Amino acid sequence: MTTATPQTHVSPTTPSGIDPRGPRFGAALTVIALVIALLAGSNVLGTAVIAWQTLVFALGAFVGLSAQPYGVLYRKVVRPRLGPPAELEDPAPPRFAQLVGFLFAVVGLISYLLGATVVGQVAIGLALAAAFLNAAFNFCLGCEIYLVARRLRS
Amino acid sequence: MSTGLGILVVVLIAATAFGLYRRFTDGHIKGVDSVPDAPTHDGEVLSAADIGAPLGERATLVQFSTAFCQPCRAARRTLGEVTGMVEGVTHVEIDAEAHLDLVRRLDVMRTPTILVLDSTGRIRRRAVGAPRTADVVAALGDVID
Questions:
Q1: Which class for B135: exposed (0-12), middle (13-18), buried (19 or more C-beta within 10 A)?
Q2: Which parts of chain B have pLDDT scores under 70?
Q3: Cα atoms in the 13 Å half-sphere on the side-chain side of A5
Q4: Is the Cβ pair A10, B18 closer than 8 Å?
Q5: Which residue of A120, B22, B40, B69 sits 20 to 30 Å from the alpha carbon of A135, by its own alpha carbon?
Q6: 3-class secondary-structure state, position B92
Q7: Under an 8 A CB cutoff, do B100 and A35 touch?
């Protein structure tokens, strides 16, 4: 298994990758959760939903995609109804996307808890943009921001 | 509620526009001058030392990749296929984060970025995003004399 830690070499072709439809399914559920959190604002519902989504991102980013609740749902309920995937994919790129989602969601959650509703909504809106692009366009967040972040950092 | 709705509408419109733009421009192989987000590197010559591998006899396909890049894999497969088809062409994959000096020098902003070098190592074409096989073959046709 490839981990999310930056590697010296370009990601190897992992023989046991993941079904690429799993992260996309997860992105669609993430879009729904973020839309609810965005529209509800910092009331009990909005705060509970963004807290849940923050937990989902944290599990995906820090434990692994196999522990991410939407991934579990996909494997247990959706995957058995579909045919096998055409090919498997490296889990590192979607795991990186979970980390980015986590960073925005955590800002959203803290803002909601502090009553800074608009700040929270902007952060959730940015997470929503990424999740929507992933669900609708199979967008690769790691391609866009990882190298730019590395260029800035060193 | 209304602030949230406003943000929702803006996000969905902007993300859709961006996603469509990327879908239509990704992987297009362009003359180095016409790549909008890259300053001109036309005429710049890369050596075997720069790319860490010998240049192809007739042309070299240089691919910048990172670990968090799904389409890098598709690009690797496409370029590998092309080097199997066109004689004298090699594919060199570079781990972008291990070669940040080269990345900065060539203004590589995202992965995969593919450069098509002629036999002398001069940069002739550039693509950002995984290109299609036919486009790579066509680009090589232009670059190989």
A1: middle
A2: 1, 32-43
A3: 4
A4: no
A5: A120
A6: strand
A7: no
